[in-house]
Amino acid sequence: MKKFKLSDAILSVICVVFVAEAASPVAALGNSQFFWWIFMIIAFLLPYGLISSELGTAYQGDGGLYDWVSAAYPGTRWGARVSWWYWLNFPLWMASLAVMCPDLISIITGVTPGPVLSLVIQLLFVLVVTIIACFPVCDSIIILNICAVIKVFLALLVGGMGIYFGVKNGFANPMNAASFLPSFDLNSLSFISVIIFNMLGFEVVCTFADDMKDPKKQIPQAIVIGGLVIAAIYLLGGFGIGAGIPVDQISSESGLIDAVIAMSGTSEGIFIALVAALFMITLFGNMISWSMGVNSTAALAADNGDMPKVFGKRWAKNDMPIGGAITNGIVAGVVCIIGVVLSVVAPDSELFWTFFALNLVLFLLSYLPVFPAFLKLRKSDPDRERPFRVPGGSGLLKVLAVVPMILIAVSVVFTAVPLSFDAETLNATLPITIGAVVAIALGEVMAAVRDKKK
After folding, report:
1. Residue 1 above 60 pLDDT?
2. Interior/surface letters 201-225, b for 16+ CB within 10 angstroms, e for the rest
3. What phi-psi label fits residue 269: left (phi over 0), alpha (psi between -120 and 50 degrees) or beta?
4. How many other CB atoms are there within 10 angstroms of residue 343's CB atom?
5. Do the Cβ atoms of 76 and 314 come closer than 8 Å?
6. On the CB side of 287, how many CA atoms lie within 13 Å of its CA?
7. Rounded average pLDDT over 160-174
8. CA 423 remoteness from chain centre
């Protein structure tokens, strides 16, 4: 069987972690985004990368963060909670990306699809991802590598165009020193969660350990090198979007494409169609790379009785967890159908952000137990071989674990809890609040039923 080389592992990190479509909501912060990017790189990305490198090499397996939390808290519901939140975010994310596809098709072809055709396009996106997810990650290595290269190319393209556009025509937003100061208003703080989301995913690469030549060396090397590249291209891509579009006109759904259109001066032509096509390919790359890690985690949790048995179903031909893949497709398809109906009833609703924000909340919650699990495993399992070990004494380790936890908790609150009660805020936030509460409650009910059966 073909094995990952170090270059494959690095490109996989870039493909998994760098999320091109999530750069637009952050760019809406204006130049203060750069403060938040740099702050989060230091306060979150660095400790998260170090901790993932240690846990990923010390506790190798198909379960990723589920393995780590279950090892730290055996006999509790924390493993079940993490696997449920971690899985449920994925079909919601898939649906949010599927919502973008009809608009991209419209840019590529010049034909605006109606509701029925839009739904067909979305369901085709879901179907393709579901089918590819039924095959081993090593079979998709070329797809992951190509998508990683395309992502870097798009970030460099947008950033380069932003520099050229700004020098030649002037920047779309003020570039004075005051504009780079951080903003602490509710709108800005709610987008911090997107920055954290943009940095997550190192544990997915850890689930590829069986497909690597030397995972104990390749995992930390890929995380460090890939993390540095990702930080640089996020900053460059965000700069390009902000250079070409006024902050109040940046769309959370199509900001990157809008920036290219604004800076090139046309919304038509081969160049714009090519950028839209490449952008859509990256959406497939996101889903394919993540599906393999999410499905493996759910399957292992099902084997241990922490998730419904359907997630443990495997294809006899290649032992892939097709139960999770098919369930993902069904749930994402249903969400797409609901989304199309809502788009007809309420055409001004931001479906991408609603689906994306709900997936964001559940996704962030699944990471909360990872950091205390890291500290606990250092104490409860001190003799385990740790090929990579986070340097520092107990005081520094606590800081490295506690700071990311606080940032995640704050991000969840600002994303899912309406902090003002005007009609606009309630309309935007309450669906996310209700969806998150229902999802968490459903997970607790299922965990209670499984505990009773046990």
Report:
1. no
2. bbbbbbbbbbbbeebbebbbbbbbb
3. left
4. 17
5. no
6. 26
7. 82
8. 29
Cα torsion 258, 424, 361, 443: sign: negative
Residue with tokens 């003020």: 174
How far apart CA 329 and CA 126 sit, in angstroms, is 6
- Residues 213, 9 contacting (CB under 8 angstroms): no
Q: Which two tokens stand for residue 361?
A: 């909340």
The radius of gyration computed from the CA coordinates of the chain, to the nearest angstrom, equals 21
Structure tokens given for 383: 């003799």
192 pLDDT higher than 70: yes
Of 429 and 381, the structure prediction assigns the larger pLDDT to 381
pTM of the model as a whole: 0.83
The residue assigned the tokens 């674990």 is: 401
- Cβ 57 vs Cβ 220: under 8 Å: yes
Secondary structure (3-state) at 43? helix
Q: What are phi and psi of 173, to 5 degrees?
A: -130, 155
Structure tokens at 431: 């669906």
Read off the pLDDT band of 404 (50, 70, 90): very high
Torsion angle defined by CA atoms of residues 365, 241, 152 and 267, in that order, rounded to the nearest 10 degrees = 120
**Residues recorded for the chain:** 454
Write the pLDDT tens digit of every residue in 118-140: 999 999 999 999 998 888 765 56
446: exposed, middle or buried (Cβ count in 10 Å: 0-12, 13-18, 19+) = middle
Name residue 4's beta-bridge partners.
Answer: 212
| Tokens at 109, concatenated | 């072809």
Return the pLDDT at 232: 83
Residue 419 three-state SS: coil
Say which range, 201-205, 329-333, 395-399, 410-414, has the weakest mean pLDDT: 201-205
Who contacts 297 (Cβ-Cβ below 8 Å, separation ≥6)?
62, 63, 64, 65, 66, 83, 86, 87, 207
